[in-house]
Amino acid sequence: MLIERNALLEFKAGLKDPTNRLSSWVGDDCCTWEGVACDNRTGHVVKLDLRNPHPFSVIDDNKWCLGGELRPSLLGLKHLNYLDLSMNNFGGLRIPEFVGSFRQLRYLNLSTAGLGGLIPPQLGNLSSLQYLDLYNDLGPVREFIIDNALWISHLSSLQYLHMGNVNFGEGAHWLQALNMLPSIVEVHFSLCDIKAIPVSLPHVNFTSLSVLDLSKNFINSTMPGWLFNISSLEHLDLSNNIFRVIIPPAIKNLASLNFLELTGNPFLEGKIPAALGGLCKLQHFGLAGINISKNLHEFDEVFSGCIKNSLETLVMSNSQVSGYLSDQLGDFRMLKALYLSDNSISGPIPASIGRLSALQELDLSNNKLNGTIPGSLGRLAELVFLDLSSNFLEGVVFEEHFANFSKLNYLDLSDNQLILNLTSDWIPPFQLQLLNIGSCKLGPQFPAWLQTQENISYLDLSGNGISGILPDWFSRSFSQHIYYLNISSNGITGPLPNFYSSAMHLLDLSNNSFSGVIHPNIGRSMPKLIYLSLSANNLSGEIPLSLCQPDFWSLDLSKNHLLGELPNCWNYSFIIGINVMDFSSNSLSGSIPPSICSLPYLESLHLSNNNLSGELPLSLKSCVSLHTLDLGQNGFLGQIPTWIGESLLSLHILRLRSNKLVGNIPPNLSRLSALHILDLANNNLSGTIPSSFGNFTAMKVIQESHASILSYYMYNENMEVTIKGTGMEYSIFLSLVIIMDLSDNNLSGTMPEELTSLLGLLSLNLSGNHLIGEITEKISALQQLESLDLSRNNLYGGIPSSMIALTFLSHLNLSYNNLSGRVPSGNQFQTFIDPSIYAGNPGLCGFPLAQKCKDDETNQGPNVVGGDEEGSEIEWLYISMGLGFAVGLWAVFGPLLFNRKWREAYFRYIDQVYDMVYVALAVTFNRFKEHNVAA
User: Fold this and answer.
1) Eight-state DSSP code of residue 833
2) Which tens digits make up the pLDDT trace of 756-803?
3) Final residue in a domain of this structure, among 126, 159, 194
4) Is the peptide bond prior to 444 cis by the omega test (within 30 degrees of 0)?
5) For a tag on the chain, would you pick the N or C end, based on fewer CB atoms within 10 A?
6) Could you give the C-alpha distances from 797 to 530, 776, 818, 851, in angstroms and in order?
7) How far apart are CA 883 and CA 617, in angstroms?
């Protein structure tokens, strides 16, 4: 016993114990020490359990974690059969080889212990081991690696094996090792970087296997046939892999299967076999994220089997399923969870859904469902989770729909066309934690029944048609525990509510009619606030300094009447720092404070439409993470600094329009490879357009799918973009907008031909400058161009006929230049019927101008564009037509002119024809008149 006591004390001496968890390790009786257990008969130490009792400290500050070294003195515990060091942090230390010397060890748990490196094959000496857990989720620095797993085959007594997040090498032979463990019952090989799996095995030895988890790997193959020979299998998780061919008919062999998860295999294809319906014990079936692209009626054959009497969870979200929900849905009496979100399911929700008496979770969100919510839904008394958001549901929702929902805590009806007819004195039977009824018609009165919901932590009442002043109880009721509050896009008036919430993370009061000043302590009263939007209200006063204190991710105070200067206090955001700062469309004055760019993660800065002045400060050079810089419509002076093209290399949007900037445009702006919106319009810039502007990488690419400009997922970047002479607000599709606007400056020289390599341009505006030269024929390369404005310059020459190839062009302005020649016709030019777009070019002619070209004085329609040769051919065609007409006319009327008898005979014939026609018409008219009289 003394040997074991000393071994433990020596082991403790190598450990780091910041919270003194092992303070009880004193005295002679080590069997009473924390984490130590002894055999009642022999008194020997048989168990050492040093698992972290506070596991979340591993990802927080590690204060409860043991660390240090693992000394071999532990070998003094000769009778040890249980060792647990999990949920600690040993800083990437390798598993000591001496652990393989504990021959009596039956339980070994080293999961999430901060260990790493190559797993020693000496662990294969633990022939008595029944439980081995090496799961590791502490990142690549502390990653377990296994290059050859054959040592696992020596663990002949092993029943439980968890090696999740262990990196298996290419030749690890893990399946061969597994196949030599006849007693293995449960195997977890999730996140093991397994790229291949043998499709067949000569013989399956692990016939006791009950649980197999191969999820979250890179397995790229068809489903292996040997899987379906393990008749003992109850739990099979193959999710998030690259399996191909969906499920073979041999699935019928897995008669004991109760859990089947295939979610997240994007290349699975083929028909789900009818044999699946014969799995009478299957309780969970997951197919989310699989492009099965099937109509729901094709599952009727599968779901008509005995599976409908056992299935408890069905997950088919994001699987491109279409069709209608069948009345057969009500036959799944055991169903507890149904997830069909993010598909293309249409039609109404069937009334049979009310027969699913065991249903606890129902998610039909983001489909194409229409019609009303059936009243039978209200019979689902066990329902806890209900999400019908983002469909086309309409009609009225009454209190009766919720009458039996006593267990409901999650309700999302947002983004439909529903009317909630709920009386002000209604007392709901539920206590919700989440309520999202955004875009539902609820107002104009604020819902008084919300006062009964004491547990709400997520509340979205946006776009509900609510008006008037918030009731006094509102801020009191939701101050302590709510973390998400969105009451935007209503007509709420009065002062801003005073929230004193230690839990609030997101607060959106935008697009209302709140007035007054922002409370000076707003930041300090909500220390965890990361998203604040007070945009589009009637707020006045100055920006409170308290907003500099918390670590906001997004701060939007735009479209108000705020005054004063921007606070110079942003260096206090030291943990995370602001990602988005939008103070646009106010009445702010002064300069940009230097502390703004002490925010290391600032990606979006909107200060447009204010009264800011001064030169662009050098401090902006430090905003190296900026994706959007919008300083338009202010009074900024000086030149565009060259450091923008040197330091702000992440910029997607640069908007400096409507300021007082002067000087040349820096050519090195073209180094901004991600830039797709460049707006320098309405300044006093001079010099030439840099030829390097043809090198904007992002403008050369045709954008086909939109993606967020910012890494901050909670915020959709939005701003006004001037296209086709009009300012338009873009948000979700802003990343698809590719424009260059240099209009209304003092730029000179020619239009660089290099601009025609910007194949993704949607809008090009160079108007209101002093550009000279001809419009290049290569402009036809800009096939995506929708708007082109070259007006109010000194361009000369003809309009290139190649421009008719710009088939997307819908806005064109070439007015007030010195252009001459014929206006092209064909394609989009046929639709440009407004002559003002060519005004101020006296040398232009042809449709739609009143001035005709010299070669088609009689032409009344659009002109045909052609070369000299083509024009001369048309002239000869007209001449020959005229000669032919003259000869034909002379051949008929010449003899009548010189021969009297022919002339008299001709006119007698004309008189006879006239008499015949007159008589015929008179007879017909009289008959018609007599018929009407008789009638």
Assistant:
1) -
2) 999 999 999 999 999 999 999 999 999 999 999 999 999 999 999 999
3) 194
4) yes
5) C
6) 58, 10, 7, 17
7) 78
Number of residues that this document lists for the chain: 935
Q: Is the omega angle on the peptide bond into residue 848 within 30 degrees of 0, that is, cis?
A: yes
Q: Is the dihedral of CA 875, 880, 881, 883 positive or negative?
A: positive
Residue 590 CA to residue 562 CA, distance in Å, equals: 13
Which residues 6+ apart lie within 8 Å of 575 measured at CB? 551
Q: Average pLDDT, whole number, for the chain? A: 87
Query: Tokens 């509510």 label which residue?
Result: 497
pLDDT value at 703 more than 90: no
CA atoms within 13 A on the CB side of 496: 26
What ranges make up the beta strands (E) of 4-103?
A: 15-16, 36-38, 45-49, 67-68, 82-84
Residue 2: inside a domain: yes
User: Residue 141 phi/psi, 5° resolution?
Assistant: -65, -30
Is 165 part of any domain? Answer: yes
Residue 896 pLDDT > 50: no
pLDDT in tens, 456-484: 999 999 999 999 999 988 888 777 788 99
Q: What are the beta bridge partners of residue 772? A: 750, 794
Nearest residue to 462 via CA among 432, 433, 485: 485
CA atoms within 13 A on the CB side of 396: 6
The span from the CA of 192 to the CA of 641, in Å, is 50
What strand order describes the sheet that includes 662-664?
662-664, 684-688, 746-750, 770-773, 794-797, 818-822, 843-845
- Cα distance between residue 863 and residue 824, in whole Å: 7
747 - beta bridge partners? Answer: 687
Q: In this structure, are residues 324 and 299 in contact, taking their beta carbons and an 8 Å threshold?
A: no
Strand pairing report for 719-723 and 726-730: antiparallel
pTM, 2 dp: 0.80
* Integer CA distances (angstroms), 320 to 307, 413, 812, in order: 22, 22, 41
- Average pLDDT over every residue of 665-671: 96
- Residue 845 sits at the vertex; the CA angle it makes with 840 and 849, to the nearest 5 degrees, is 70
- Tell me if 932 is assigned to some domain: yes
pLDDT computed for residue 920 by the predictor: 47
CA dihedral for 790, 794, 795, 797, sign (positive or negative) = positive
Which pair of structure tokens corresponds to residue 680? Answer: 């320098």
Q: What is the pLDDT of residues 74-123, one digit of tens each?
A: 999 999 999 999 999 898 899 999 999 999 999 999 999 989 889 999 99
Of the candidates 137, 165, 194, which is a domain's last residue?
Answer: 194
What number of other Cβ atoms are within 10 A of residue 557's Cβ?
24
Place of tokens 């979100």: 341
Query: 237: which strand partners?
Result: 213, 261
Contacts of residues 475-483 at CB distance under 8 Å and 24 or more positions apart, as own/partner, are: 475/499, 477/450, 477/451, 481/455, 481/456, 481/457, 482/456, 482/457, 482/458, 483/457, 483/458, 483/528
Strand 580-582 to 538-540 pairing = unpaired
Round to whole Å and give the CA distance between 721 and 681: 12
Which CATH number covers residue 143?
3.80.10.10
Domain housing 46: 1-194
How far apart CA 113 and CA 90 sit, in angstroms, is: 6
- Considering the domain boundaries, does residue 133 fall inside one? yes
- Given pLDDT bands bounded at 50, 70 and 90, which one contains residue 197? confident
Which pair of structure tokens corresponds to residue 409? 């805590």
Quote the tokens at residue 58: 């591993």
CA 215 to chain centroid, in Å, comes to 24
Which residue, 663, 683, 805, is CA-closest to 742? 683
Number of structural domains, the chain?
2
